[in-house]
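Today's session is about reading a structure prediction critically. Students often jump straight to the picture, but the first step is always the sequence itself: look for stretches that repeat, for charged clusters, for runs of hydrophobic residues. Only then move on to the predicted structure, which in these notes is written as discrete structure tokens rather than atom positions. Here is the chain we will use throughout the hour.
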Amino acid sequence: FLNGAYNLSTAEDWVANTYSDDTRWGISQGSSLTVPSASDTVELAIGQADSVDGGAFTAGVVRTSSRICYCCNAGGEYVVTNELVLTMPGADRHLAYQYSTGAFKFEKVTLGDQGASKWFYFANQSHNGYAKNIWIGAGGLNLADGASPDTAYSCGSGANDVVYVRPWHSDYTIGTKSNSTADLVIYRGTVAHIGTDDEIGVARTVTCDGLIHYMGAVIVEGSGTFVVNNPGNDHSGTWTINDTATVAVKPGSKTGTGAVTVNAGATFAVSESGTVAHGGALTLAAGAALGFNFTDKEAAPVLDLTDKTVAVNGAVKVKVSSAGGVKPMGGKYVLTSGGKFVDANVSAAADVPKWVKSVSVNDDGDIVLVVKPSGVSVFIR
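Below is the predicted structure for this chain, in token form.
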């Protein structure tokens, strides 16, 4: 174990190419190692077994083709201030191997490979259900040019894995790649907490251009927004939206085929004008909201719930917004289809734009917005 504070001046000062339990580097609590960059960090332990709590590792750039960090027991931080670059030439790789409760903070991650079906796991093998804490900066989660369609980030790798992925001081984007079959995997049995607040509680926007895949549970929390953009999403697990978080789905996309529950204070939204064909059941708790963002003055954002099971368990608010100064033309806009709101208590949220005249449910059981007509000025001389 390294004990004390070490600040290396050049990349050549740092070598971490260890593997077995007998030769693994470790940084214990109260100690730190800072390097301008690091190469081939196969197994760097931020703390280790036998009740050794972790210290801190900070690097400008890390390039590696193997497992990133063996973090054991409480504490410890693994921080990359510029970019973590991963290549996976022969097998899946893991970020946090066992018992990890420390934090991983990456300004940018770029994932590539030299073969199909390689996943980079944010956790491994459900070791005692320890939560894994990952913070992502402005550079986001990226897939390298030429990465195979199957290469992906995976939240968890087995039953009882719990992974927290949160913004680090900025909005960020989860990328995609050509002919993708998966970009963000929610592994079966895993609970993936997608945070929308940064480390000091500022609401952020996390944009997922990546294809969301597999069957674990997703919980979106905080006070920011998680934007779902990929039309190929085939995730079959459940979604739960908590706190005052918003999940905003782009027309043509969907969260997947699993059930979505919107709890009190949270919002499920259509991000643009156009139609979102919802993929699974929808449950709206009392105090939940549906959101509709106009990006075209003549076309409404629409949530299509045809043939879907919808449970409305109390009063629901409707949030209406517009982008880029767009004001819908006066008149009536039907915001949902499928007739799922018969006898529901639906009303406009308190902070809707001034051009909103009313929100109600029509005879078909769909939510209808009435927009005030544009004013006409008459001058008399």
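Discussion point for the tutorial: The mean pLDDT is 87.
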